[in-house]
Amino acid sequence: MLTTDRSAARAPVSVPTARRRVPPAVAVAGGVAALVVCAALSLALGARSIPLPTVIRALTGSDHGPDATVVTGLRVPRTVIGMVVGGALGVAGVVAQGVTRNPLASATTLGVNAGAGFAVVTAIFVLHLARPVEFMWFALAGAAGAAVLVHALARRPGDVDPVRLVLAGTVLTAVLASWTTALMLASQRTLDEARFWLAGSIADRELAVLVRVLPFVVVGMALAVVVAPSLNALALGDEAAHGLGVPVARIRVLGGSSVVLLAAASVAVAGPVPFIGLAAPHLVRPLLGTDHRRLVPACFVVGATLLLAADVLGRLIARPSELETGIVTAFLGAPLLAVLARRTAR
């Protein structure tokens, strides 16, 4: 007995230590550098690779050859649109996870993207729309309707169950996907117009489409910045947030509105690109912690980087053809969702 006690006394004591995080300035600089690299690759790589000096001369206006025309006329709009769409999806994801207190929440898993996509395909089927610039209001209506329906399905007396939110979003996504497929099979014209858009892509998009949806992105981003401090309190639970003076219901409405606006704008431009909003917050939190005042701008940068990286990868995989960005993100994001679901269960 004495020997055991002495052995225990000599045994090293394990003291839990806080995870050492990267200084915010270093993390931000790294994220911006990664975004710049992905933007440069987006301008240089494609069906035909263009040397970086030629890209720089095209951007400065000192080169007007065929390669420069490809850069300024096709790849610059594509890159700018990819940055805005990816950033919007990243912010929508972190706000969705903060509002629902569920690490699996995003515009994809909550059915918001599916609602926007179904509404746009319905508009193509009924109104014979053909241009993405015409999709915004239908995407907004579909996203808002899906968000309200998922919230209603997940609501319980006095609270909203975070687990039921994702379950309701998954069920609604499956239902809307089947309805969308039925509309496309009922009309060859709808199938031709919608199938590539539904795959999720920023190819052949004009800056006029981005200009049309930019006000919605700006308002959605502004709402995300406004609710960010309150999301920190909301993470403690509704009762604790109430005790700290946070208007929980109002914050959920404003945060939900931010997610709907950002997701609808993204879907209107690029189609339903999955998993960007799910992945971005999980990449940022280990570096910057859980303060949403830092997470919101950081997720914009990371979301933009992820989408541009996926778009460049899609160009290189099937060269000289291209693989749609949404297919690449779905292929890479599905294993991520499985890992996150397993970690959340533990």
From TrEMBL:
It is a multi-pass membrane protein. The keyword Transmembrane applies. Its main location: membrane. Keywords: Cell membrane, Membrane, Transmembrane, Transmembrane helix, Transport. It is found in: Cell membrane. Pfam families: FecCD (PF01032). The keyword Repeat does not apply. The chain crosses the membrane at residues 25-47, 80-99, 105-128, 135-154, 166-186, 207-228, 259-283, 295-317, 323-341. Belongs to the binding-protein-dependent transport system permease family. FecCD subfamily. PANTHER family: FE(3+) DICITRATE TRANSPORT SYSTEM PERMEASE PROTEIN FECC-RELATED (PTHR30472:SF1), FERRIC ENTEROBACTIN TRANSPORT SYSTEM PERMEASE PROTEIN (PTHR30472). This is Iron chelate uptake ABC transporter family permease subunit. It comes from Catenulispora yoronensis.
